[in-house]
Amino acid sequence: MRRSAIAGCAAVLALLSGCGNDGASGDGAAPGAGGAVDVSHVHGMGVDPADPDRVLIATHTGLVAYANGELTKVGDLTTDLMGFTVGPDGRLFASGHPGHDEEGPMALGLITSTDRGQTWRSVSLAGEADFHALDAWSGGVVGYDGALGALQVSDDAGATWVEGASGTDAYDLAADDSAIVATTDGGPEVSRDAGRSFTALPSAPLLQLVDFSDDGTLVGVAPDGAVHASDDLVEWDRRGVAGRTQVQALTTGPGDDVWVATTESLQHSTDGGATFFAVASW
Question: According to a count of CB atoms within 10 Å of the terminal CB, is the N or C end of the chain lower?
Answer without folding.
Answer: N
